[in-house]
Design a protein that fits this description.
Blueprint lengths: L6 E6 L17 E6 L17 E5 L1 H10 L10 H4 L9 H6 L6 H6 L4 E12 L15 E14 L5 E13 L8 E14 L6 H6 L12 H63 L4 H23 L17 H4 L1 H12 L7 E5 L12 H11 L1 H22 L4 E14 L13 H7 L2 E11 L5 H69 L4 H36 L2 H4 L6 H6 L26 E3 L2 E3 L4
Parallel strand pairs: 3-8
Antiparallel strand pairs: 1-2, 4-5, 5-6, 6-7, 7-9, 9-10, 11-12
Helix pairs in contact: 1-6, 6-7, 6-9, 6-11, 6-14, 10-13, 11-13, 13-14
Length: 621
């Protein structure tokens, strides 16, 4: 097995240990030489910050990039690898709608007209022991033909219609025949209309023809399934954009945190130079110089951590979580997270820099109207309403199976007989179709057909099952409403806290800066511990970071309120073109948005789809 050995040899590069007046802090650092059998160059993997071009982006442009590059809806947890079946894509709603078994088109196909035809020609030869059985001959020989054509259809109310034509040909050697060959031809129509079970437009739109208890595949159910999938896609897009916005502000926070750390490093360097000057005059000792030097290098380490980050992975987050972690992961890590979410390459020689500013003004929402708006606009609640509506439909269908199957049936047939296929109407039986149009041969049948199981055990079980499922979904809906109100109340509390913290941190920064100036001036004229200066610098940097963090938290608190209210997409000026999402299988569906608002994506209407004159009418919008 090939082995690799690494040897670390520290080298400290200092221009002049006794003088730091001309010291450049960018290059005074500890360097290690890494020796291996297979040296790996990383020069082209990660460019130094000063060699990367700054790419300034607004939040609107980042949102547009995320929408146009997200055929698969990304999440920080990486579910596309661990659980790919649970990931939302732009194709899901179209896949559900075009499902050949349970989709809308599959449900509509049950009402399509069906054509059937058969054309047969053959010959039979037999030898019989009884001439009577052979119609006067013991060696019957027969040539026969058959042409059968029919068209059938099921209407929206469940009525079965069928119209057909049957033509036969027969030639045999029976001595009892009137003609050596004969043709029969005729037209027939059939109708079967359900009077009890399976009757009505509502049942057939819910369950579909040929349904059974618990198996409902009608147009209304298929449409609701499609709209539920569209709602799930909208939820996935909304959560993606919330993650994108959070990543955008976390990157801004990472920049400001790095700026604060750089200020701390520069202040520590100035303090070190000041101590060096006092050391030269005898006003300071070696311990103070060592302390100042140690604090400087501590700040160098924090600058590196703030720029590169301590972790390389992507931390998981929840949609309603308002935590900001950019100041912990570093600028490059935050930038990688944003690149991942908006779907752009990780290494292109550029460094993204947010240019939008955080929200500084106090945003005040009307609480009563916000609660009412959240209960109406939250997509999760709309999705649950669709599920309840679907179960209400299924309960209607299940109750229909408690009825017996009573059908009105009717059949009419007009046919003719003749020596030839066509003949003249003036001579009887000269041709099958000429005889048919004489109207001498007509058959008809009218009656009822009854069928029902004793006890309706399965139908009663289906009704009870539908009732329990409906009660379950209704209970979930009520709990969802309660949860939404709790989340909105918590979002308002967080908004109030974030704004108050932001105002307090602004005053804190002013005081921390003044304290640094005062302590530094005092240190130059009064013999006070150097640690007081270091503490003042540390608190000033902490105040700068806290201010940046509170500004980002306040901005995200506003976004969270819109998220919980169900207005987050409108807050970002993103609106769905629902017709495109519903019917166009394109790869750019996620990028379809318009500046003009449209009605609700998933309207709750009284009738989820009509079959008018056997033609499908889509849901009204």
């Amino acid at each position: 097995m090939h082995s690799r050995t690494y040897t670390q040899q520290p080298h400290i590069t200092v221009a002049n240990r006794n003088s730091i007046a001309d010291y450049d802090p960018q290059w005074m650092e500890v360097k290690y030489t890494c020796i291996s059998n297979d040296p790996v160059s990383i020069d082209n993997v990660q460019l130094p910050p000063e060699q990367r071009e700054t790419w300034e982006l607004t939040l609107d442009s980042v949102v547009q990039m995320a929408l146009s590059r997200s055929q698969v809806i990304r999440d920080i947890g990486g579910a596309v690898v661990s659980a790919p079946d649970s990931v939302s894509t732009v194709f899901d709603s179209v896949i559900v709608r075009t499902d050949p078994q349970f989709g809308v088109e599959a449900a509509l196909s049950d009402f399509d007209a069906q054509l059937a035809t058969s054309l047969l020609y053959g010959r039979t030869e037999q030898t019989l022991n009884n001439a009577i059985e052979g119609q006067g001959t013991r060696d019957p020989r027969t040539n026969f033909g058959l042409l059968d054509f029919s068209i059938s259809k099921i209407t929206g109310s469940g009525t079965q219609l069928k119209l057909g034509n049957l033509t036969t040909f027969d030639r045999n050697n029976s001595p009892l025949n009137r003609f050596p060959q004969s043709f029969t031809g005729g037209f027939q129509g059939e109708i079967r209309h359900p009077l009890k079970q399976g009757s009505g437009r509502e049942f057939n739109q819910i369950a579909g023809p040929g349904a059974s208890p618990g198996n409902y595949r009608g147009v209304r159910v298929a449409q609701l399934n499609t709209h539920i999938e569209i709602a799930d896609f909208q939820v996935a897009v909304r959560d993606l954009l919330l993650d994108v916005e959070r990543a955008y502000w976390e990157l801004l926070l990472a920049y400001r945190n790095l700026d604060a750390k750089l200020q701390g490093r520069d202040a520590a360097l100035a303090t070190w130079r000041m101590v060096q000057a006092r050391l030269a005059t005898g006003d300071a000792d070696g311990a103070e110089e060592a302390l100042a030097r140690e604090r400087y290098y501590a700040w160098v380490t924090e600058v590196k951590d703030a720029y590169i980050g301590r972790t390389a992975g992507l931390a998981a987050s929840t949609a309603t979580d308002n935590r900001t972690v950019g100041y912990e992961t570093g600028l490059l890590a935050a930038e990688r997270r944003l690149r991942f979410l908006i779907g752009i390459p990780f290494y292109d020689g550029k460094l993204i820099r947010p240019i939008d500013e955080t929200i500084q003004a106090e945003i005040i929402f009307d609480r009563p109207s916000s609660f009412a708006f959240a209960l109406q606009q939250r997509v999760e609640l709309q999705t649950q309403q669709l599920k309840i509506r679907r179960l209400e439909y299924e309960l209607v269908a299940a109750r229909n199976f408690l009825l017996p199957q009573l059908d009105l049936i009717g059949q009419y047939r007009m046919h003719g007989f003749g020596q030839d296929l066509f003949g003249t109407t003036t001579e009887a039986n000269s041709g099958a179709y000429s005889d048919l149009f004489r109207g001498d041969l007509q058959d008809w049948t009218v009656g009822f057909e009854w069928k029902s199981p004793v006890g309706f055990r399965r139908a009663h079980a289906a009704v009870r099952n539908a009732q329990f499922q409906l009660m379950r979904e209704q209970a979930i809906y009520r709990e969802q409403q309660r949860q939404v109100t709790i989340e909105l109340d918590a979002a308002f509390a967080e908004l109030h806290r974030a704004f108050a913290t932001n105002e307090a941190n602004q005053h804190r920064v002013v005081g921390a800066r003044q304290r640094v100036d005062a302590i530094r001036e005092k240190y130059q004229v009064v013999d006070i511990p150097l640690e007081f200066v270091n503490i003042a610098i540390q608190r000033a940097v902490d105040a700068e970071t806290a201010l940046a963090r509170s500004q980002v938290e306040h901005t995200m608190a506003v976004a969270t309120v819109h998220y919980v209210r169900g207005t987050y997409l409108a807050y970002l000026d993103v609106f769905f073109q629902s017709d495109a999402i519903e019917s166009v299988p394109t790869c750019e569906l996620a990028g379809e948005f318009t500046e003009a608002p449209i009605p609700d994506l998933i309207p709750i209407v009284e009738d989820a789809g009509l079959i008018e004159g056997d033609a499908y009418l889509p849901m009204p919008r």
